[in-house]
Design goal:
heterodimer; A: mainly alpha; B: mainly alpha
């Protein structure tokens, strides 16, 4: 196919796609006026019956908690898969050797970047913990807070502290935390079956709206997901970092 | 639609176009990160702070880091291959 024919075909397809998009967006309900009763009912159920101030987290961990169980296990399996695939390529002790070598060689990053990374670690950790435990009250929850916490560890790496990273995230601890988070969510889901009427039934007392422990199982599940996501994302990222260390060691 | 929402939509359009038009992978990782941040401000302007937070952590932290680490790995592999080629000659 000539370049001209490709151009005509590409532009024609783009124009068609654009027309379809405009048509589809034109048919959307007005902003703030969704069709169907769910959008009005769900926040009311969360606030009146479950005492959860942040309806979005409430829906994620209560009304649609079963979906979240699946999503959490997806991340667990993804982290497991990345670790298994990357670890199959190296032998015992190789990582420690590569990290020690990297440490001897000294940081390759600028002083300003290292200082900024070191300064940001503490606030990022605090913000992550805040977002995880306040999931039922303010925007956020286990997932967002978990990625923030894993990001704090990444800042330690960005600050050029490879050996420090190896120390603060003992692989076994990260793996155990990953499994504990995933297991805790599953156990809370099963607790609904044992103490309530169905899986994911909210069996804990709902508490006072606006207090830290309001919403029954919602804050518990938020923390469980927070632990699992922190460990899962840390595991995936650190496997990548390990791989990079190994490559730079072998490359020299 | 408020002026803020219009500005956010335009910023997303500009950042998205910039990401597509950037050819070099390293620059593209940064461009797609800025697209993610523009999207998160857009979600905030449309009253979805939870989605905005997810967007910030995924597009601003997780995706660029994974892309950069993958690029770093590819480059060391390329360098090693180039050295082997030189050795054979």
């Amino acid at each position: 196919m000539s370049a001209r024919a490709r151009l005509v075909l590409g532009l024609g397809s783009l124009a068609g796609l654009g027309a379809l998009l405009v048509w589809a967006v034109g048919g959307l309900p007005d902003f703030g006026h969704p069709r169907g009763p769910y959008a009005d009912l769900a926040p009311r159920i969360m606030l009146d019956e479950r005492h959860v101030a942040n309806a979005v987290t409430g829906i994620t961990f209560d009304l649609r908690g079963f979906d979240t169980l699946g999503e959490e296990l997806i991340l667990f399996v993804a982290a497991l898969g990345a670790a298994v695939l990357l670890r199959a390529q190296r032998t015992e002790g190789e990582i420690e050797e590569a990290a020690a070598y990297e440490e001897r060689r000294g940081p390759g990053t600028a002083d300003a970047l290292r200082a900024l990374g070191a300064v940001l670690v503490g606030p990022t950790l605090l913000l992550g913990i805040y977002v995880v435990v306040h999931g039922a009250l303010t925007p956020g929850g286990g997932f967002q807070g978990g990625v923030l916490l894993a990001g704090a560890l990444l800042l330690v790496y960005a600050a050029g502290q490879v050996a420090a990273v190896e120390r603060v995230r003992p692989a076994s601890l990260v793996e155990v935390a990953d499994a504990v988070g995933a297991a805790a969510y599953t156990l809370v889901a099963l607790a609904g079956l044992v103490f309530g009427v169905a899986v994911m039934d909210n069996v804990l007392p709902y508490g006072t709206t606006g207090s830290l422990l309001s919403g029954g199982t919602v804050p518990v599940l938020s923390v469980a997901v927070g632990v699992e996501v922190t460990a899962g994302v840390t595991l995936i990222l650190s496997e990548f970092v390990d791989q990079m260390l190994l490559r730079s060691r072998r490359g020299d | 639609m408020t002026a803020l929402q219009t500005v956010c939509l335009l910023a997303v359009a500009v950042a998205g176009t910039a990401t597509v038009l950037t050819r070099e992978p390293l620059r593209q990782a940064v461009a797609s990160g800025s697209l993610g941040l523009a999207l998160s401000v857009l979600f905030l302007a449309f009253g979805a702070p939870d989605v905005a937070l997810s967007q910030i952590v995924v597009a601003g932290v997780a995706v660029p880091v994974m892309v950069l680490l993958a690029l770093a790995k590819i480059r060391t592999v390329d360098r090693a291959a180039a050295r082997e080629d030189a050795d054979e000659r």
